Amino acid sequence: MLKVTLDTDQLQQMINDAVDQAIERHALKEKLPPVLTKTEFQELMGISHAKASQLINSANFPVTRDMGHPKINTAQLLLWLDEHTDWSPKDIKSSKKLSIV
Fold first, then answer.
1. Across the strands, what pairs with 37?
2. Three-state DSSP class for 73?
3. Which of 19, 44, 57, 76 could form a disulfide with 62 if both were Cys (CB 3.0 to 4.6 A apart)?
């Protein structure tokens, strides 16, 4: 078992960093428009036109074509990303969890 010793300043800094990251993630969600164009989606994700097209045309991707050109629902995109992440907390075996004593 790994033993970690932190003083109160270190612990407070870790907490502050985690809170800052959470606030930053929340702020990003608030800055995004409710619906993204294909170009906005490409820029946000940092992907090519071809990859954006592939995703937009794949099954279960949060896209609508009711407004002419494909539009991506931002809230559904964020959920889709969570569901299609390669890593999951469930993947950690209990023997490999970090314990702070």
1. 71
2. strand
3. 76
Q: List, for residues 54-84, the tens digit of each pLDDT value.
A: 999 999 999 999 988 999 999 999 889 888 8
Angle ∠(94,97,101) on CA atoms, nearest 5: 120
Kindly state the tokens that stand for 40.
Answer: 């906005």
The structure tokens 């490999």 sit at 96
- pLDDT tens digits, residue range 11-62? 888 888 888 777 776 666 678 899 999 999 999 999 999 999 999 999 999 9
Domain parsing of the chain, residue ranges: 8-84
**Which is it for the CA torsion 23, 81, 39, 37, positive or negative?**
negative
The encoded tokens of residue 45 equal: 């994700």
In terms of residues, how long is the chain? 101
